[in-house]
Amino acid sequence: MTDTTGVTEGPVDWEQARALAYAAGLAASGSAERIPLAAADGRTLAEPLRALTDLPAFPTSSIDGWAVRGPGPWLPEGRVLAGGTPPPLSGDGACVEIATGAMVPEGATALVRIEDSTTGADGRVSGEPRRGQIPDWRLPGEEASRGEELLPAGTAIDPAVIGVAATCGYQDLAVFPEPRAAMLVFGDELLTEGPPGAGRVRDSLGPQVPGWLRRYGATVTGVTGPVKDTLAAHLDAIRAGLDEADLICTTGGTMHGPVDHLHPALAELGAEYIVNTVAVRPGFPMLLARVPGDRPRFLAGLPGNPQSAVIALVTLVAPLLAGLRGRPLPPLPQVEAGTAVPGRGGFTHLALAAFDPAGRTATPVGHVGSAMLRGLANSDGFVVVRPGTQAQAGDLVPFLPLPLLPGER
């Protein structure tokens, strides 16, 4: 890591770059905030979720039938429904009718299902409790004991987690703040509407990058651009964006050409590089910097070529946002390569690939030039080929999935 007045000795290894971005985000993750259960879906636990009481809190019937005491037949002495607190059974030979979810009365020695019972002319109940099967009642603490950690901090909150919290009696949860991200599009050559032509190209990153950011858990505060190719315009746009956002993603300008003003702008802002160029193909060059201020602020410089920009997102932005959200950086799953995938010398090769219907084999797709997006639209993620290696058909290789929203393929 260097400040912006220095130059890194060379591109950072891809796995190391991901680790550096994640560590920077985790170190900057905000203090916990409490929000209602209904608003917690998609957030991240900032504190362990612990049982506030035994679960269940009392012996609970799992059936409709009879709570009995001692050997039968049994004389009914009332009924207990869910939500009530029954008196103890009076003695052997007594029973109460009981509903699913009701509290089992003190003194009960067994439960008899309604379908396994009969009632005689004298009003007494006969039947046999079931043995050796799923218990007909749940004992206190069977699912969890009071104070037991049910889920650790860093757990992604989904409807199931909300259900567990509600069962425990929580009204709200401590969660990490949602990172705020903004986007700046650089390049006088870009069009924001209509087809490309006459030396100008249509901006494809301004419309698509916010969707990736949202899938990685950021709240997008805005998209600005194209920003004029001047240092003053770059500085104004970055400062304005960081007034609202924790992270700015810029597109283009990551080289040192005559109209590449990102590095000079970062120097002017006193920024510190976390990563300055990554040894990955496609995707070179990219950067991640920390911008000084009264709170943690970051800038991710994405290359101007569309596929390279997405690779910068999955390499640097996704781990940074995972850290900011307090989530673990997930390990890469192993998949079977459907065909041979070449290496890229001393660089990591991220090869766009699509799964077979079973989801076990990933086969590289076509149209994968750094300026192309057609291959990306037909892919599930990237086969990862480490430096100095290549993959053969049938090899197990790491796979970096593209992020999905619930319900997507």
From TrEMBL:
<comment type="pathway">
    <text>Cofactor biosynthesis; molybdopterin biosynthesis.</text>
</comment>
<dbReference type="GO" id="GO:0061599">
    <property type="term" value="F:molybdopterin molybdotransferase activity"/>
</dbReference>
<dbReference type="InterPro" id="IPR005110">
    <property type="entry name" value="MoeA_linker/N"/>
</dbReference>
<dbReference type="Pfam" id="PF00994">
    <property type="entry name" value="MoCF_biosynth"/>
</dbReference>
<dbReference type="GO" id="GO:0006777">
    <property type="term" value="P:Mo-molybdopterin cofactor biosynthetic process"/>
</dbReference>
<keyword id="KW-0501">Molybdenum cofactor biosynthesis</keyword>
<dbReference type="InterPro" id="IPR036135">
    <property type="entry name" value="MoeA_linker/N_sf"/>
</dbReference>
<dbReference type="InterPro" id="IPR005111">
    <property type="entry name" value="MoeA_C_domain_IV"/>
</dbReference>
<dbReference type="InterPro" id="IPR038987">
    <property type="entry name" value="MoeA-like"/>
</dbReference>
<dbReference type="GO" id="GO:0005829">
    <property type="term" value="C:cytosol"/>
</dbReference>
<comment type="function">
    <text>Catalyzes the insertion of molybdate into adenylated molybdopterin with the concomitant release of AMP.</text>
</comment>
<dbReference type="Pfam" id="PF03454">
    <property type="entry name" value="MoeA_C"/>
</dbReference>
<keyword id="KW-0808">Transferase</keyword>
<keyword id="KW-0479">Metal-binding</keyword>
<dbReference type="Pfam" id="PF03453">
    <property type="entry name" value="MoeA_N"/>
</dbReference>
<dbReference type="InterPro" id="IPR036425">
    <property type="entry name" value="MoaB/Mog-like_dom_sf"/>
</dbReference>
<feature type="domain" description="MoaB/Mog">
    <location>
        <begin position="182"/>
        <end position="323"/>
    </location>
</feature>
<dbReference type="GO" id="GO:0046872">
    <property type="term" value="F:metal ion binding"/>
</dbReference>
<feature type="region of interest" description="Disordered">
    <location>
        <begin position="119"/>
        <end position="140"/>
    </location>
</feature>
<comment type="similarity">
    <text>Belongs to the MoeA family.</text>
</comment>
<feature type="compositionally biased region" description="Basic and acidic residues">
    <location>
        <begin position="125"/>
        <end position="140"/>
    </location>
</feature>
<keyword id="KW-0500">Molybdenum</keyword>
<dbReference type="InterPro" id="IPR001453">
    <property type="entry name" value="MoaB/Mog_dom"/>
</dbReference>
<protein>
    <recommendedName>
        <fullName>Molybdopterin molybdenumtransferase</fullName>
        <ecNumber>2.10.1.1</ecNumber>
    </recommendedName>
</protein>
<dbReference type="InterPro" id="IPR036688">
    <property type="entry name" value="MoeA_C_domain_IV_sf"/>
</dbReference>
<keyword id="KW-0460">Magnesium</keyword>
